[in-house]
Amino acid sequence: MVKIDYHRDLKQVQSDGQLALWLSESNQHAPFDRLEWFTMLAEHCDLAPLIATARTVSDIAVLPLSSNRSEISALSNWYTFRFRPILSDEGLLTALARDLARSTHRVSLQGVPDEDGSATVLARAFRKAGWLVLREACDSNHVLAVGGRGYEDYLASRPGPLRTTLKRKSGKVTTTIFDHFDAAAWSAYEEIYAESWKVAEGSPAFLRAFAVAEGKAGRLRLGVAYAGGEAVAAQMWTVEGGTAWIHKLAHRESAKPLSPGSVLSAALFRHVIDIDKVDLVDFGTGDDPYKRDWMEIVRPRYRLDIYRPLDPRNWPRIWRAIGKHGARRLAAAAKRG
C-alpha cells in the first residue's frame, strides 16, 4: 500500500524519522537533496515548500516542490545546481504524479539533469499518470571529470592562454584556503563581491547560513586571494561525496590586471584534486565563457512543463507551445523521456 503525504511545514518532515533520515547527509551526498537545504531556501529565499512524498514499508519517493497560487514548481532557485526527485523506487513517483492531479493542473520543473536519468524518469512517471509533459533544454552545467589525474597533469591540459596567465600572475597573488567557516574571510568575500562585476546577491543570509553549516560539517573550501595585503578575490566551494561544487566566485574590479580570480581558482583546483581527491568538479549552471577554460564536459539542464491536458486553464499554454514548436515537434517532445 502506498502512502502519500504533502508537507508545507518542514518541522513535520524533521519529526518524521524515516523521511528525515532519507533526506539527511547519511543518505544524500549532495547539498541540493537534503532537508537542510530545503529549510534554508524556505527561511531565507521566500519559497513556500511543499514536500511531496510517496512511500511503502520499504521504499520512498520525495519530490521537493514549492507551491504558490498559480502553480506548483521545483523547490529550488539560483543557488540550486540541479533539481531532481529523491527516490528509491520509480513506481512511487508515478503514484505521486497521479495524486498531484487532484490538487493542481500544472507543474513546472526547471534545472533537471538527465545524466542520472532524472528528466527521463520524471517525464515517464507523469505521462503514465495522464499528464502532458513537454521537455526542453533550459541551461548548461559545466563539469570536470578528474579521471585519476593529479593537478599538474590537469593543468597541462588547460588552454595555453590560461597557463600563461597563471605563470605570469601567480607570484603577485597569495592565496589561503579555509576548510572551516572564518568570519573575517567571509566578510572579505562579501566586500569583494560588492565591488565585483556581479549583480547584487540574491540572498546573502542564505549563502552565509549555508557556508556556516558546511564549515561545521568540514565540507567548506573558502578561498581568499591577497595582493599587497588586501583581499582581492574570494571563492566558495564545498566538497562532498567525491565532488567539488563551485558555488560562488568574485574578484575586485580594481585588481583585475592581477588575474586574482584565475590564480585563486588554480589554488582551489589543486586543493580539491590533490588533497581532497575528488572525482568530479561541478561549476554549476550558466554558460559563462571562462568556465570552458577549466571544465571539459557540458551537460544540459532541462525544463519540464507538465499539464493536465483536459483542463481548460492549460489550453492557452498548450496552444502557444503548438505555435512555437509545431504540432509534430510538440507531439514528439511530449513522448520523449
What is the strand and helix layout of this fold?
Layout: E1 3-7, H1 10-15, H2 17-22, H3 35-44, E2 49-55, E3 60-67, E4 72-74, E5 86-87, H4 90-100, E6 106-112, H5 118-128, E7 132-145, H6 151-156, H7 160-169, E8 174-178, H8 183-194, H9 204-216, E9 220-227, E10 230-240, E11 243-251, H10 260-275, E12 280-285, H11 291-294, E13 297-307, H12 315-325, H13 327-335
Parallel strand pairs: 4-6, 11-12
Antiparallel strand pairs: 1-2, 2-3, 3-4, 3-5, 6-13, 7-12, 7-13, 8-9, 9-10, 10-11
Plain-language structure description:
The chain has 337 residues and is α+β, with helices and mostly antiparallel strands. The chain has 2 domains: 3-140 and 300-335, Aminopeptidase (3-Layer(aba) Sandwich); 147-278, Aminopeptidase (3-Layer(aba) Sandwich). Helices cover 37% and strands 28% of the residues. The protein is built from 13 helices and 13 strands. The protein has helices spanning 10-15, 17-22, 35-44, 90-100, 118-128, 151-156, 160-169, 183-194, 204-216, 260-275, 291-294, 315-325, 327-335, and strands at residues 3-7, 49-55, 60-67, 72-74, 86-87, 106-112, 132-145, 174-178, 220-227, 230-240, 243-251, 280-285, 297-307. The longest helix is centred in the C-terminal third of the chain and has 16 residues, at 260-275. The chain is globular, with a radius of gyration of 22 Å. The two termini are 27 Å apart. The model has no long low-confidence stretch (mean pLDDT 94).
